[in-house]
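Entry 0007
Protein: Putative glucose-6-phosphate 1-epimerase
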Amino acid sequence: MDYSTLPTVSALSDCVTIAQLEDIKIVRVQHEKASAAISLHGGHVMSFIPTGKPDLIWMSKEAKFDGKAALRGGIPVCWPWFGRIAAPSHGFARTTQWELVEHRENDNGVIVELALYPSEETHDIWPYMFDARLIVEVSDELKVSLHVTNIDDQAWTFSGALHTYLNVGDILNTQTRGMGLEYIDSLQSGKVCQGEDTLILSDTIDRVYTQPEAQIVVEDANLARSITVENQGHNSAVLWNPWAEGAKGMGDMNDDGYQTMLCVESTVHANSLEEGMTLQPGESHVLATTISA
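Output (structure tokens):
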């Protein structure tokens, strides 16, 4: 999708505008180094295009922009939990409206800060007070950081992920390195397995790699580029592709969508809410991912 052609709601600066896409508003960044699109619904990065290069982020052609459903593709913010360990799946952050609180720009790029605050709706789902900020840095590379702070008078426990969908030319001609050897296989009921140094897919994958290296590299032969993913504040990296049968089973993914995407996620993984990361009152945590090609 060409986000530059969307109707402009308001111009905030030379580089930052608010655009409308069906029922959602998008923070649109257009800088000489790169362009990006960030949905206020879900605090969801939808696009990152280094100038003169293809998009690094994949979005489904069937994504729903009704302001209710989670967006399929991009970088969903899974918080305050990851997975189906509570309802709704992947938490409420990815389906809640975020607020644009700040944007800054200079010759090096643009920084956009969004905030998610507690509300009656979030309290009904998860009864704690929190301050969540998503900082998106758009330059030669993309850095997305989720800052969460416990502003309650009691400790709470969380998990989460920056669920990045990478855009690749052809998943059959893509190699991934740096994810580590040990993984928990969600397709085998959580069995702990040992993998190889290099991953080449020929079928669906849903793995929690427990010992990822500092950098995960995706060699995208068809688009002649190496995509580097560097995560921080995580305890694992999740790799996922639903393959043909999975894509057909999702109403918001085009049937051939699996052919051009690979999820490489910065994850705080836990098997239950109680087993997640605990923050005492006043404590903060930052979960981040940096993506470059």
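Curator remark: The helical segments are 120-125, 243-248. Residues 49 and 203 are 28 Å apart (CA to CA).
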